[in-house]
Design goal:
heterodimer; B: Alpha-Beta Plaits; 6-stranded mixed beta sheet; 20% helix
């Protein structure tokens, strides 16, 4: 794996999209959405990739260090035979593994940090939701 | 029998001929604005306005002066440890100083007094080079 870190936000989002789509059993990945309320049961489990924030630190006239906040909204559906917490936890472990398998996002980022994960605590049963907030550091030529 | 203005101008010219250095500037503060420069202008050598002290009072209005200059080398390296990149340039700078120990007759001595540790973080690093120069000041000229 090359250690680089020069990329664009679009390349990084595409890398996350590609990684999430390799999860066995995932049904739906989309961008910039908050609630899964309009998603049918056939699209569970799934994830939204949300571009949340970008903080730019100028290093040179044509080189910046970027701190890109990206939130992954993940959701699962538990049947009556399934335990919702177990299912959500298992899905989160899988998503986390995919995200951290290559923190350089295909050599387009310097690092990826998972800052926190929060869940709905089971309040939406049988639907379970969680938000995984990531901070991605990358360099750009703008 | 020279003055600091000529010596520093000559030092800048000589450093500009070092293979691997793309830009030489003279600055009055170590915290100059590097964001005004592009990647193509690096490696950049900043000659910081030196401290000056009397080394030896002499008769006939002559004084041996010491110029304590610092040069700051800024360079790009897309890796964690900038080994080869800076090593080659530092050697070239030291060789240039060794070959021009009197800066074309302007001074009586120039030597590298010290090298700092490498500072910065990927991809932008810098290292400071302390120089000590001695020259005869003709007080009739100043």
């Amino acid at each position: 794996m090359a250690y680089y870190g020069l990329g664009t936000k679009e390349e990084i989002l595409k890398n996350i999209d590609t990684q999430l789509n390799t999860i066995t059993g995932i049904k739906f990945v989309d961008y910039q959405r908050v609630l899964a309320s309009d998603i049918g049961p056939e699209k569970y489990p799934g994830s939204f990739i949300n571009d949340v924030s970008t903080d730019k630190e100028k290093l040179l006239k044509d080189l910046s260090r970027n701190f890109f906040g990206c939130s992954l909204v993940c959701w699962v559906w538990a049947t009556t035979e399934e335990d919702l917490a177990t299912k959500l936890n298992a899905f989160l472990v899988t998503v986390k593994g995919k995200i951290m398998a290559d923190p350089t996002r295909g050599s387009k980022a310097y690092d990826t940090i998972i800052e926190n994960i929060s869940t709905d605590g089971g309040s939406r049963w049988p639907q379970g939701m969680a938000v995984m907030n990531t901070l991605i550091v990358f360099y750009s030529t703008d | 029998m020279e003055n600091r203005r000529l010596i520093l101008a000559k030092l800048a010219v000589e450093m500009g001929t070092v293979v691997g250095i793309n830009t030489v500037i003279r600055v009055y503060s170590k915290t100059f604005d590097l964001t005004q420069f592009t990647q193509a202008q690096l490696p950049l050598l900043a000659i910081i306005e030196p401290a000056e002290e009397t080394d030896n009072e002499m008769t006939s209005q002559r004084t041996l002066m010491a110029l304590l200059a610092q040069m700051s080398l800024h360079f790009l390296h897309w890796g964690i440890i900038p080994n080869v990149t800076f090593g080659t340039i530092i050697k070239a700078i030291r060789d240039k100083i060794g070959d021009n120990f009197n800066l074309g007759g302007l001074i009586t001595e120039i030597r590298v007094a010290g090298l700092s540790d490498i500072a910065g973080a990927m991809p932008l690093f810098n290292i400071d080079i302390d120089l000590e120069m001695k020259y005869y000041l003709n007080e009739m000229d100043t």
